[in-house]
Design brief:
- This protein is of the alpha+beta class.
- The chain is about 65% helix and about 5% strand.
- It has a domain of about 110 residues.
- It contains 7 helices and 4 strands.
- The chain has a 4-stranded mixed beta sheet.
- A hairpin with a 5-residue loop joins strand 3 and strand 4.
- The longest helix has 28 residues.
- The protein is globular and about 65 Å long.
- The termini are far apart.
- About 10% of the residues have low confidence.
């Protein structure tokens, strides 16, 4: 009986909500990377709000907008996650030209990697190094905070990183450098 209890406790401790982490990671990465689509979405949301107000002024109590917002709400969110997300979102426009030039790439471990600093002056090299360092610190903290928010043991953070890594690579633009599972670099097609 004691062994059965021990094994059942062990199973509970190993549980990893992969689907939940995947959904949260998609929402976080999309929020950081999709600036233009977000602007278009805001325009659509404004139109939906206008429709709702028009419907509500007619005496009905139909609420399409609030149901849409409920569907979009981030699966995992804390003040720290929102702050990290905003920090990465603010930094992304500064990093993007370095991705486009091939100076940095998306690593297979969920972190940005410096690849090639040739052609950069000292000021740009220093800026690139600071951006990469700041981005990777925020990513590291994001992975840990997602684990805390989902009550996942800290030993499982590498699994969270892998989920995020796959998404960072998936959301990379064509022509950006990405690191394959075997460690080789390739331009995304």
């Amino acid at each position: 009986m004691f062994l059965l209890f021990l094994f059942s406790c062990l199973t509970i401790n190993i549980y990893f909500p992969e689907a939940e982490v995947q959904k949260a990671a998609e929402e976080i990465v999309d929020e950081i990377r999709k600036e233009e689509e977000k602007k278009e979405k805001k325009d659509k949301d404004s139109q939906m709000m206008e429709m709702e107000q028009a419907m509500n002024s007619g005496g009905g109590s139909f609420s399409l907008v609030s149901s849409l917002y409920a569907q979009e709400e981030t699966e995992v969110t804390t003040p720290k996650i929102r702050a990290l997300q905003q920090s990465m979102k603010d930094r992304f426009p500064k990093l993007k030209p370095f991705f486009e030039k091939g100076n940095v790439g998306e690593g297979n471990d969920g972190f940005v990697k410096s690849r090639d600093e040739s052609g950069l002056n000292l000021k740009d090299k220093a800026m690139l190094r600071n951006l990469v360092n700041d981005e990777n610190n925020d990513r590291k903290n994001m992975y840990a905070e997602v684990a805390r928010a989902k009550e996942i043991d800290a030993s499982q953070i590498p699994r969270i990183q892998k989920i995020f890594a796959a998404l960072w690579i998936k959301k990379a633009e064509a022509g950006w450098w990405i690191q394959k599972e075997n460690g080789e670099w390739a331009k995304k097609q």
